[in-house]
Amino acid sequence: MPELPEVETVRRGLAPVMEGAVIARAELRRPDLRFPFPAAFAEVLAGRKVLSLGRRAKYLLVDLEGGDVVIAHLGMSGSFRVAGPEAETVPGDFHIPRGKDERHDHVVFHLDTAKGPQRVIYNDPRRFGFMDLARRESLSEHPYLRELGIEPTGNALDAAYLAARFRSRSQPLKAALLDQKTIAGLGNIYVCEALWRAHLSPERAAGSLVTAAGKPRKELVGLTEAIRAVIADAIEAGGSTLRDHIRADGSLGYFQHSFSVYDRTGEACRTPGCSGTIDRIVQAGRSTFRCVVCQK
């Protein structure tokens, strides 16, 4: 499933085309994706101007003139591509071949833009993605969004915040970081990478990073910095290249080529001076990659 950096790169790819454009027509080629489309979805979108494209955790937010907001999730295999009037070919350097079966083009947004007509096409072979509608004034109370924690990209994420969340918790550190009520959009790949950068064991108790007085220990300060850095690096690199995921311009991200620990079982640890190797364990049904020598 695409993680936060992948969704952010999609947002950045779509924004130049969609922001300021008018949705002339929304074409729904089936009645549902993972869930049915909202009632009169195509009719609500028709003729509406796109004010901005945002993101909350792993959700894309299409803010429309008139106060409605489209909430879109890519699911396991969803992707957007932009097509001009002449062709539907997708530019980009494909390191992993992408299926071009138009049977999986389920939603087409026909746009009137300053550069002429454009189409934004949503393709989803597995149909685990979905789209919903909300009102802007009550967006934060939408069921998908209301319990989400802070973003890992903003200044709100600091060691003091995590100390308040982790205090007295015996839960493993990795599980605590994957709790979306604590940090929104932080997924399995980047938790593994951040813990490796911070030299912390994923099995360590979250509360061990907090003093008896509730203050963050030095290790928690380092972990906070590692989380922010790994997310920033991934966004800059274009996100990780999962099998079905592509950026909005058709090209794949490249961050997977610089993973330091994720999916590197048996390889030498990249920490300078470390003699360890990367191994894999399973926590709550999910793969965790770590170095037992330098992650304590």
Spatial sequence of strands, sheet with the most strands: 5-7-6-1-2-3-4-8
The radius of gyration computed from the alpha-carbon positions, rounded to a whole number of angstroms, is 21 Å
- CATH topology of the largest domain: the name is N-terminal domain of MutM-like DNA repair proteins
Number of helices: 6
Q: Overall mean pLDDT score?
A: 89
* Strand/helix succession: HEHEEEEEEEHHHHEE
Number of domains: 2
Number of strands: 10
Give the % helix: 10-25%
CATH class of the largest domain: Alpha Beta
Assign the structural class, choosing from mainly alpha, mainly beta, alpha/beta, alpha+beta, or little secondary structure.
Answer: alpha+beta
Query: What is the general shape?
Result: elongated
Distance between the termini: 29 Å
Strand content: 15-25%
Fourth CATH level, the homologous superfamily of the largest domain: MutM-like, N-terminal
Runs with pLDDT <50, length 5+?
87-99, 241-245
How would a textbook summarize the main sheet? 8 strands, antiparallel
CATH architecture type of the largest domain: Alpha-Beta Barrel
